[in-house]
Amino acid sequence: MRAAIALRFAFAFAFVVSTAFSALAQTSVGLVEKKTFEMPRYTTQSGRSLRNVKIGWESYGTLNAARDNVVVVPHFFSATSNAAGRYKADAPAPGYWDGIIGPGKAIDTDKYFVVSADSLVNLNVKDGVTVTTGPATIDPDTGRPYGKNFPVVTIGDFVAVQKALLDSLGVARVHAVVGASMGSMQALEWAAAYPDFVQRVAPVIGIGEIDAYTIARLGIWAQPILMDPNWKGGDYYGGPEPAAGLAFALKMVTLDARHHGWAEAAFGRKWADDAKNPLAALDNRYLIEATLDQAAAARARSADAAHFVYLVRANQLFVTGHTTDLEAGLGKIKARALFIPAESDLLLVPGYARKAVDILKRQGKQADLVAIPGTGGHLDGVLSMGRVADRLKAFLDN
Predict the structure, then answer these.
(1) 15-37 residue pLDDT tens
(2) Which candidate in 108, 157, 304, 345 is catalytic?
(3) pTM for this entry
């Protein structure tokens, strides 16, 4: 069946980077260790206090004596801290930016100490590797999962916990923060929240604030989960989970993160089954439909629906600097900036990055932009970074 053959490809482009970067890799960072950072207590930007907060993290390279060669790599919506290397030698794929993180690469681990951490409310809470605090976490006050009692968290909360991690390592200064999509929001928040601590910021396929259109689109992502009868207002733990709604939501994320040029090249109008013409019956489908469904269902098995909904809200709330005004938020930034949008991005379109660059320049800041060519859509900022690797390397090294 064609859908089964295409599933492996679709799963890779949607949520796990394939070996597309291998052609430009010199040397991998190799096997990496997932570590855990713990905070006895953390107060969210909404004012709620959480006990025993944990996030997973990993690092590549060596922290120098001055403790100022740090590059922070926050991850995108559906990712984890695994930006490079593998946890096991037989892992099916390396971290999502393995092609640009490592010895001699754009983010050169011979020079930099690279740190990446799992976000709060990380989507991948069931994968056996991700460490995060969110709705699925046991509330120490009740002995049950938080569920809907977990507080709303923000991109700023993600960054504040990461800052506590770096403080625990004795980091004196951050050389750069480089992140894609939701990672770009965290990168900008880093630069705005800690302007004297961060020297450079490179938002990839990013946005300075979530505008009304994107707020609505994100809300639509969450809607299948909220409409699933097993959602139960977010208190489904211990019973049937809203798996169907989560899979549908992940399918929408996958499609929104791509471009019609990619879809045509990868699938065209092929049928899912050569013997089942879509004209003959409503159950007979096209290859792209069947492939997206199978990939999303597979991905949903390691994800959590409530974490997805909380991630949506964190993204909806984002404005650089935790303000209500983009210019004011960007005005807090002192770091040099390099925005890297994708030309074919239909999710966070390049105009958003250009708007932020224009504002920073009007404010007298050092800001530039380089676009990733291609027809891969939003995911070009993950899978096609090799096309702008030289520009990123020059930005970091000079």
Answers:
(1) 333 334 443 445 899 999 999 99
(2) 345
(3) 0.93
